[in-house]
Amino acid sequence: MKPKALNNILVAIDLSEATPDVIATAIMLNSTHNGKFWVVHADDSAPYIDSPKNGKVPDPVTVDTQSNDAEVVLAGVREQLSRAEMAAEFIRLEGPATDSILEKAKEIDVDLIVIGAHRHGRFYRMFFGDTGDELMARAPCPVLVVPKKSEKPT
Question: Which of 28, 32, 10 is closest to 115 using CA atoms?
Fold first, then answer.
């Protein structure tokens, strides 16, 4: 069985602390697969009823994920990709994150979805669900979950 080429890769970011690690993973994937990258951010902040070409990874860019301004965070992401000489299409999605990401993944026929890992407690999951779990269960393609590596030891 011949492995499927990764021509379309959807990189879903939520502008959290995991974002720089997710983008760094996309940069590494680009160095070996050189497919088309779609960086999407699903803005699900409104209430809803339903719940590098040369193989070198550049130094990480400090992305202010504590900023309330999505444009500031996205500018840092663009800079991180630019340093790696990596082109990507940026798309902002509106609505519940899981549904929006899955809809876009099907629309552009992606071969891989890349997301960041989060740790939420039972209470959070009970009321809000877990985007990563839902994506892994319902995605039309493999989902790569990137652990948060840049966490400072406590």
Answer: 10
Write down the pTM of the prediction. Answer: 0.76
Distance in Å from the first CA to the final CA of the chain: 45
Q: 23 with 11: CB under 8 angstroms? A: yes
Going across the sheet that includes 112-116, the strands are 89-94, 36-43, 8-13, 112-116, 143-146
Sort 23 into a burial class: Cβ within 10 Å, 0-12 / 13-18 / 19+. Answer: buried
C-beta neighbour count of 49 within 10 angstroms: 5
Strand ranges (E), the chain? 8-13, 36-43, 89-94, 112-116, 143-146
Which stretch of DSSP H or E encloses residue 120?
none
pLDDT digits (tens, 9 = 90+) for 60-105: 444 444 545 778 888 889 999 999 999 999 999 988 889 999 999 9
Phi then psi for residue 45, to 5 deg, are -75, -20
